[in-house]
Design a protein that fits this description.
This protein is an alpha/beta fold. Helices cover about 50% and strands about 15% of the residues. Strand 3 and strand 4 form a beta hairpin.
């Protein structure tokens, strides 16, 4: 085919522009090709690596250029990489980008190379209302009712055994008769209590070790939560709020991201670099919208095991995982060449290898029982203290009532005795 015949381009120089949102502290080409700090510009360095393989595959060379923006409409024209391609200042795009209808008019797409998924990442706060009374949690209501009913039945049976045994002693004298009724009843009462206690205590300990229920599962619940929100300062995040018509997303932007704070008297902006935003997530009480290609490596390096297990993710974009595609000039003669080459890389597994280099997998939750997991807070045992206080108050009230009753009874008896004495003397 024509593409195969173009395998050797005899060192043809092609101008390529790559998006770099961070400031590299080393020569530009070395920064793009060295797998160090892979959470920085990982998507762009990944795609540039694919283009570098195609450079050797087709025997052409690069003239590198850089920009800070993919390309967005500004006063009717595109800036950044798309603007350079539309003005034919460069031949190839070194960074992949999302599909957009307005971009299709000025550039040509080749094939999909990368899946990006930006989302909110946060440590889910514990629900204080998750367990209203942990001491009633282990058993269902029907079990508690059955325990009360059978407890009363056993008490009645035990009382009857005492009654009939005492009656037998009174009628037959002090014989050495052996009565198994009370012993049998006591044995089954103890066995029943032991089994119920084992289930009860094991359930309470298990509730301390199991994962806490999560209530923040949607963007709406995230907006209504007390978490502070932030977004990675990256061009497509700002562009999303300009383009979207989603009511929840617009409310989030106007009330939680960029807004006027009446208390401080200044405009607040919560666009942050990925490292700073995830540091706040690690400290707790903060939700940060960031691309997982950058987030997962930072999380693996800086988060503890407990922090990782508490992480939750919520998507804000309508399509959570979006394909990114490599681009060239509109109607470029190199479109088929680049498309064929990228598909060959995918078939050969080289594209997957590049993903392993530049994209960190999601950190796994390896939860181990730690001493902190068994710490019981006051909110979990407050009902027990309330029960104890109620019992003390009831016992003191009964004591006071008994004292008053005894005094009244003594006075009544004293008056009755005095009255009988007076009658005798009279």
């Amino acid at each position: 085919t024509t593409v195969v015949r173009r395998r050797n381009m005899d060192g043809l120089k092609l101008k390529i522009m790559t998006v770099v949102t961070q400031r590299p502290h080393q020569p530009f080409e070395r920064y793009l090709t060295t797998p160090r700090d892979t959470h920085l510009d990982s998507v762009h360095r990944y795609n540039y690596g694919l283009m570098s393989i195609l450079k050797d595959f087709y025997n052409f060379t690069f003239v590198n250029r850089r920009t800070k923006s993919w390309g967005y409409l500004r006063n009717g024209t595109f800036d950044g990489m798309i603007g350079a391609l539309s003005r034919r200042e460069v031949d190839l795009g070194g960074s992949p980008m999302f599909f957009r209808q307005e971009r299709h008019r000025v550039v040509s797409y080749t094939t999909r190379t990368f899946i990006e998924r930006p989302c909110f990442i946060f440590r889910h706060p514990p629900r204080k209302d998750a367990v209203k009374n942990p001491f009633l949690l282990p058993f269902q209501i029907i079990v508690w009712y059955l325990m009360v009913v059978w407890g009363l039945i056993l008490v009645v049976v035990l009382s009857l055994s005492f009654y009939f045994q005492d009656s037998g002693v009174c009628q037959q004298g002090n014989g050495d008769g052996i009565f198994f009724t009370r012993s049998c009843t006591s044995f089954f009462i103890l066995l029943f209590g032991y089994l119920m206690f084992q289930y009860y205590s094991a359930s309470i300990v298990g509730s301390l070790l199991m994962e806490q229920p999560k209530s923040i599962k949607t963007l709406r619940s995230l907006i209504d939560s007390r978490l502070t929100l932030g977004i990675e300062d990256i061009p497509y995040s700002r562009d999303y709020f300009v383009r979207t018509t989603d009511a929840d997303s617009l409310e989030l932007y106007r009330t939680r991201i960029e807004y006027y704070d009446a208390h401080t008297g200044r405009n607040e902006s919560h666009f942050l670099p990925a490292v700073d935003g995830l540091r706040l997530v690690r400290d707790g009480g903060y939700a940060f919208h960031v691309a997982i290609s950058a987030a997962y490596r930072i999380i693996r390096q800086t988060f503890g095991e407990r922090d990782i297990c508490e992480l939750s993710e919520i998507d804000m974009f309508p399509v959570s995982s979006q394909w990114m595609v490599a681009i060239v000039q509109k109607n470029s003669p190199y479109r088929d060449v680049i498309t064929y080459g990228l598909r060959r890389l995918n078939e050969a597994g080289l594209m997957q290898r590049q993903r392993h280099v530049w994209q960190e997998p999601k950190p796994k939750c390896v939860r181990q029982i730690a001493p902190d997991d068994l710490i019981v807070g006051l909110d979990a045992v407050v009902s027990a203290f309330v029960l104890l206080a109620g019992g003390l108050a009831l016992s003191i009230s009964m004591l006071i009532g008994e004292i008053l009753y005894r005094r009244v009874a003594q006075r009544s008896m004293f008056r009755h005795t005095c009255k009988r004495t007076d009658e005798v003397y009279l």
